[in-house]
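Risk mitigation, structural track. In case the binding assays with magnesium ion fail to produce interpretable data, a predicted complex structure has been prepared as a fallback.
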Amino acid sequence: MNINLYSPIIDYRKIDSKRKKALQKLGLITIKDLIFYFPKRYDDFSTITSIKNLQIDTQSTVRGQIKSIENVITPRRKMRITKAIISDETGSITVIWFHQLYLKNYLNPGTYLTLNGKIERGYPHGLQIISPSFEKYHKDSIHSGRIVPIYSESAYLTSRWLRFIIKPLLNKIDRLNDWMPKYIIKKHQLIEINQALKAIHFPKDSNELRQAQKRLAFDEMFLLQLRAGSNKLAWQNNKSYSIKFDKKLIKYFVENLPFQLTNPQKISSWEILQDLTQKYPMNRLLQGDVGSGKTVVAAMAILQTISAGFQAALMAPTEILAKQHFQTLRKYFKNYPIKFALLSRSNAITNQNKISNSADIIKAIKSGRLDLAIGTHALIQEKIRFKNLALAIVDEQHRFGVKQREKLKKIGDSKNKAPHLLSMTATPIPRTLTLSIFGDLDVSIIDKMPPGRKKIITKLVAPYNRDKAYQFIRKQIVKGRQAFVVCPLIEESDKLGVKSAKAEYKRLNEKIFPDLKIGILHGRQKKEEKDQTMRDFINNKINLLVATAVIEVGVDIPNATIMIIEGADRFGLAQLHQFRGRVGRSDHQSYCLLFTDSESENTFYRLEAMTKISNGFKLAEIDLKLRGAGEIYGIRQSGLPDLQMASLTDLALIKTTRDESHFILAKDPKLNEHPLLKNKLKSFCSSIHFE
Ligand code: ADP
Ligand code: MG
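Fallback model:
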């Protein structure tokens, strides 16, 4: 049969239905999918040691013939074990397996085996291996006597089976045309793609394996960079409104603020206001810890846009945050003739309290009578049209994906211009990540807090100090303060010992603080219920709020001064840092108390870092190194691509591939002169589950 890369695996060989399902579950449908299902690690069985030369306490591979095999009962403990004697030309060794009595029928005297395991002193003499991995030996062994690939396994897919099915594929496929330009291969001393694909599964030796890993990691990061680069170019290919920088206007605004801008606020505003002057749309990310003062920077961009005669939109992830923005901007724009409105499910008001139903507001946005619309992210979903939307600001979202940007273009106006786009986030994103996966964004960073903020005192509380901690919390609450308790789960699960919000709520409510008002907030509640609880907490009708990770980013509750985090080991450092940012927003001293049942050293190291470091970027960088990118922001909402080979922390690789991608895109922005690469990029983008 004529098989090509895109043939379904089942055309190539019969596969039983359980395995078929298991393959599908992993997204492995075609032969190409299998070839690109890279091993997650390797066992090196490539060096075979003569039995004579075996050393006690080493992990070794031996090859020999079964001389005898039998199931025996151990003299003292009366256990039934399988015992075999294996010999090569230089000697014999005893092999013992537990609980695998069937092996006696499967392995017969005379059979050749390759075994890998730890060499131990035998009883009463000689050497032995206990429960080694093993393989019947064939001349062209794919399972042992070499560097053996170990794949991510699932119930019906063992590495052994995957090796068995992948190996012949590698020889049968047509040679792939290499998509990597020749000069890049040469310049960076990469091996060619066919060799790399073969070697990543069945490397001849460790050197070839390293070469294959290098090539495939290069490919991945290079494609990631090309993707970011071409997205950026595509966005910048749009026309936008060139908004002149009005020095007088901005100077007046800044001079009349009740505070002085911090230096990074000044720099960020400058970068944004410069972007607005371009004829193509901005796509910038403004990063800064909670409380670092992003809103005032956004306000300056809005002011400049509106005073030039255009409209702006500001979107927040929740209604409460949208409302807070509305109130804040009301203060900032108190002395300006700016007309704006808050439009969300439960709110439809203007800053002059004139119009108060959403239909009127929508009309006023369309006619241009309103300058600014504030709402949730749903703003772009609604049937809203602007007269001349020139600036869209999205709060607490790392980025607006390609699809969302297209929507933004549509709600703008009919002149087919795209609005300038500013995303704001309090999530600290390490520099390596902004360069690799957020590479289509320009980035401004506010890495300094306004002066006068008290440092949040962070403590890792030992289990035996829990009661003391509760006494402390009670004292604070009696003084009028409020507290959060964050739990990793909503409900008790099988995972023993992990605190759930519901159980913790019950415990605190009934046993620890029966006299206090306790609230609960989690993702499975109705939106109205959540909003009500949040309002009660804002109004200090709730003393202590038990919540899961859903507690809203950015909400300003100055009276809350204690953040308690249960099962702290279960969160990434960046996430812990964000929780901590919920407190410390007033003159009162704030506290963050971390609890964990974990006794691992790694946990201790990470949580210690929390107590010592207050810079979110530093914490995120530490976590990226310790736990990998997917873990940083919680896997589900991470939006991070599932890379197989490249490391998102490899700054050298990021820089090299970034340069190469810029070089290509500068001359060939649509990759039309690199059809193979263009094609590869397309399939890569759909395979990494990005956005
Ligand atoms: P973010 O959105 O970055 O979390 P906000 O913009 O809400 O932070 O600002 C937090 C608080 O700090 C607000 O009350 C704001 O008025 C105040 N603020 C902002 N910039 C400064 C500054 N340079 N000096 C003093 N206070 C500031
Ligand atoms: Mg904010």
